Amino acid sequence: MAYMSQEGYEKLIAELRRLEGIERPKASAAIAEARDKGDLSENSEYDAAKEAQAHLENKINQLKLTIAEAKIVDTKRLSSDAVQILSKVEMTNLATGAKMAYTIVSEEEANFREGKLSIKTPIAQGLLNKRVGDVAEIKIPAGTMKLRIDNITIG
């Protein structure tokens, strides 16, 4: 089961529609084109097209499973008292003084460039249930990182 925002859920639906409506017909056309080139036993283009189609179908099935198991979180019912999924956390790295902000999201919504951190990452796990003013000690390969929670908002 994956908890996610309404926005994240809608992005998954749009991606599924794109894969089924655009990419699947392209894959079928590529197979048909390769098949028309003759002997299938030595047709690497055909093999590659079939492999790409199998990969696409696997991706579609995974997406359908994620959508079926998704639980949309009602952000109006969330509290900013402690870090949880869909919390935007502003914090300070106590070793470097660097300020950072991340929103804790489902694995499917994670996008580091957008500041969306998967709930399954060590940093997110270390932040969960912490409150403003708390210091989260998070073990990373380089040692232990200490992050002070400066602010928590929803979304």
In terms of DSSP E residues, the strand content is 25-35%
The H-and-E topology, N to C, reads as EHHEEEEHEE
Structural class by helix and strand composition: alpha/beta
Report strand order across the widest sheet.
Answer: 5-4-3-7-6
Distance between the termini: 20 Å
Low-confidence segments? none
The residue-averaged pLDDT reads 90
Report on this model:
With about 160 residues, this protein is α/β, with parallel strands linked by helices. Strands 5-4-3-7-6 form a five-stranded mixed beta sheet. The chain has a two-stranded parallel sheet with strand order 1-2. Helix 1 packs antiparallel against helix 2. The model has no long low-confidence stretch (mean pLDDT about 90).
